[in-house]
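Internal QA ticket QA-208
Title: Verify multi-chain structure generation after dependency bump
Assignee: T.L.

Test input:
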Amino acid sequence: MNALEVSRQRAEQLHAAAVKAGGDPNKPYEFACAEAGRRLLDVERLPKGDGRLHGGRAVYDPGALLILHEDSGDPFIDAFLVAHEIGHVELGGKDEPSTTTSIDPSRPPEASPVGADRVVDYSRRQRREVQMDLFAREFLLPRSWLRVLHLSGGASAAAIATRLGASHAVVSQQLIDALLLPAVEPKPDVSDKPLLPDQATAATHDGSPYLLEAGPGTGKTQTLVGRVEHLLNRGADAEKILILTFSNKAAAELAERIGVKHPAAAAKIWSGTFHSFGLDVIRRFHDLLDLPPDPRLIDRSDAIEMLEHEYPNLKLEHFKNLWDPADILGNILAAISRAKDEVADETAYRTCAETMLRSATGPEEKKAAERCMEVATVYEVYERLNRGLRCIDLGDLVSIPVRLCEKYPHVRARLAACYEHVLVDEYQDVNRSSVRLLQAIAGDGKNLWVVGDVKQSIYRFRGASAYNMARFDREDFPGGQRGRLKTNYRSHQEVVDAFLTFAADIPSVVGADISLTVHRGASGLQPEYQSVETDEQEIAAVAEAIKRMRAQNNSYRDQAVLSAGNDRLGRFAEGLERLGIPVLYLGSLFERDEIKNLLSLLSLLADGRAMGLVRVAAMDEYHVPLADVARVIAHLRDSDSAPLEWTSIVATLDGVSSEGRAGLLRIAALLDGFGQLEQPWNVLTSVLFDRSRMAADIAAASDVRSRAKGVAIWQFMNFLRVQPQGAGLPVTRLLNRIRRLVRNADERDLRQLPASAQGIDAVRLMTMHGSKGLEFPVVHIPGLTKASIPRSPKSVLTRDIIAPDGLIEGAGGKSLAAMHAAIAEEQECLFFVAVSRARDRLLLYSPTKTANGSNRARSPFIDRLGANVVKRHSIPVSTLPPDPVNTPVALSIDGDFRVTDHQLGLYQRCPRRFLYTHVLGVGGRRTETAFMLLHVAVQKVVEAVVARVGPALPHAELEAVLDSLWDKHGPAEHGYADEYKRIASELLQSFADAAAGQQTHTVPRLLLGVAGGEIVIVPDQVVIDASGKTTMRRVKTGHNVDEDENRLAAAAFHLAANAHTPGCEVEFVHLGDAAVSPVEMSSKVLGNRCNSIDEMVSDVRAGRFSLNETVTCPRCPAFFICGPVPVGPLAKKFSA
Amino acid sequence: MSSHIDREAILYAFAVEPAHDRETLDRYLSKYPDLKEDLIDLSAELRLNETIEKQPPTALPDPGAKTAWEEFVACGPGNATSAESVDLFARYQGMAFAALAKALNVPRSILTALRDGLVLPSSIPSGFVRRFSEAASVSLDSARANLSRQCEVPTALSFKSDTKPAHQGQTTFRDLVQRTPMTDEQRSLLLHECDEDECP
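Actual output:
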């Protein structure tokens, strides 16, 4: 239990005692003053700015037994100030004066870990103020009391706020915590055991740099804490101790553990990540860096946006994407970030790339070097933009301090003087820039003490390298010594034997002594490997094993399922739940059902066409039949309505059932009175706590699924609370930001569970990466096929841009080879981490067949665990029930069934999107980027010339058409409009080239009869060459990413074209690629495609619209509504 | 945010003093005995620098300068504790302080304002000084000396305010009384004392 939770519980107890003593919590100010009185403290209210407040809002003066606070004009805030000071008194600060300058009564208990904010951690002092704010809120409105008021008393947040004179925000925030977070059960604190001999030797090392090798379960953290205590006992100045950790969470935990015995010292020790330390250094020396005192930290999404703007001007060839350059820019930014890990600036990058280009021998090497040259170009522009805005990015946080120290000896001397003792946790995960920073601040290194385990180095992609561990005592800190912890206290002999046998072959470990004495001895239970046939059987097998383990006294929470990737975890979470196993797994927060419901609801505030209704209507609470939703949507589509206009017409709209009308009116009531400018957090707190019982229902339910829902909404509300400022409507900005976060995977940290969720009795699901540092009595590791682990370096690097040769220190020149070696080793480390989490039982699984029946071999890693793993093949008894999301829609086709080839293509890409776009007609407009407008303009030119008969138009004439359409359709207002127009002109050049010397002809309307309907195809261009051969074309302005010429729509086009004009050719022209792809399918292939089209048509008719999740989902207009659809029959015309 | 005195700010304040002679050093040493070693080291270093290069003072662009200035003001020569005046308030801590306020029939914050030198000495009515000397069992002179303090912020109640500067100068006793919530009876007694002396 962390310090915040301890103080919260203390506040709750005090509240209860105060009520018992006759206090009335409905009068918060009197209530707080009475509590002060019980401590013999007087409370006095002074005018704002009174000298006695010493510039603060409240003061605690222990010498005078006095709490002074400003007269804020708001009795609740006054009460809050008093309670905040009581917190100082109660929580260990009884003898220390304090001045409080700011309070945040509605602050969430944990900061939301998104974007750049995740590196900026609270300082120890700030943490204390956070603690007091939470104490104060809890004392005035304890969660338990609010639960009673809201759940049993039925009081809304607004009613409670009025009753107490508090703001809606404070009450809402407290209700969020009270209703959505699981209650934390008080746990006895783990008593600190004395250090064992080898730990003590390590903790008291003296006189040289020291690297402690600490394998899994050897008591690494305890030794680190022991080291700090040793230093303090020896008289070290706490302010001169610096502890660098891998995560803010680890830093906070260390501070807390040290604080048990040395509370005063713990507050003075600087502990945090390399990044937050770097930020601290940058702030201290900002003037030397020509940066503001608190420079803005930009994250990946900001950076992509910034570079997107510059993209047309960058004129990249290898990284050309004329459709949407965001992804490519993301990859380039990753390469830049990797360079910063090596402290390589844009000039160094350019130099390496140039050297590489000069020495390139074959075309492959030349291409790789040219790619690096282009990255250098982007790097230069990016740094120029950052300098102009005086911003920094995450990669700068360590590299800037390194350069600063290396350039200014006095900075280096100052930092070295500040920190006499430097301790580093997880040394195997530090990258080169971090080592250089250490060299700068650790002076001669005599007081540098680091701990790590090279076998657990799983952050190679961030530039961590076994290289740093290897050179610690030689090149980096000469004269350094090494020690090793040799006893494992965590696992049984069988588990330790398995992971050590595996580790012996890890390249950077080979030959080293990694043996461990096993404190717990043998259990007699070997690790097990079970093979099953299919993926579904694997889920069932794990479910059965979980139940079996549970029968052997391992509760659900004692068991963890670890997987290499997030995708598999999502599938497992769903599958296990369907088999009745409670699981604790948030997954991608914004793709969870309850969050999408809220987002869809919010979207209604800004979307005149009310797409979000499709999803909200499907919620149990509203239950609007599908036909009614379709009716409203159709009405809005035709009437160009303003957002929420539907709420006023729904009462009278014809063709809506009475049940549907009632549901729609209930939805309307949720949003009544809110406008487009409302902040999303305010809207949703009102929806959750005033206008519905959504939160109350979740709080009242006791099942794990509801608990997980609550935690997800809590996490979401926490995220919503602080949104970056920007132009546009708050809701639109929020939704766009979420799309970007998901697309760039910048929301990963939101998958973490808040601390209070740890007590829930459910199986933990997490990635192998996420399991680091944890332990579980039972560990299940499914999915251990040859293809999934180890992954081949090539498959890992598909999106990565290889650094130029010579950039990565220790790579021996060739970056590609070094990256391959690093990835291969990282995969081994990852598996090592996973298997070494098990205390008692280790259970491994893999399926042996793919969905289409081909064989899948098991991972070679299983066999490397040694002969003691019991292997068996079995078929689980239970089977997985079907996924309810794929329940068919009760669709009846009205009249003939006719769809276009485009619609067919969309169904093939994603049936669910076809449902939204073509059945329900909700295809809303997306935010249009300049690139999208450019393509619209080119498309308009193609459309304008399609009906022409005669010689194909040359480029110059197409440009003239473009000129006439540009202002209306193109990004004419953009700062780089000319560059965009140049690109448009290039695309039209490809279009002209494709038809050069040919005659264009009238475009026919083609029909292809299929079982159950017809496909309608209107080509974009028909050309006839000199020999009289006809070619029909589909012209696309973007890139050919999906092999369009091989898809079902191409087959339909080909068949229909040849039925119309026998012997004619069919081609796809992709202007972005300047390429023409003919449709060349054998008659057998065409036959197969025809059958697929028939099946597809029959699927549509049967209402089957399955979901096809891909990485591009965040770009889909239906991203937020995608999922459950309302029930009931729907009649639909398909007349194309 | 709550504040704790900051070692660096004190050293910084010391560093920007115009002179680093014995007197200045003593002044700091008596105020910050904990920092004895640091202060002595720093003064040696600074004096060395001062003899090598005498540079005119320049404006400091650093936000630390503000904090340092406050320290500098707080440690001004006028603030040096004279040898004969004993800090009476040091004896009145906690319950004793509360009892003293009660004996004087004033809210505790009136007394903290006096303790912290927030009240213009000339504005303190003699009637109050007399009552103070009686309640604290000290001579009138000692009472007057203890109530005539320079603006002083008790350790750790000081700076790093995000909002406004901590020192706002001294206020009159009458103003203090008017700004402080108290019973009518308490107020009329204190105001009566002010009126008697024709205090501002």
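Spot checks passed. The first helix of chain A runs from residue 3 to 20.
Status: verified.
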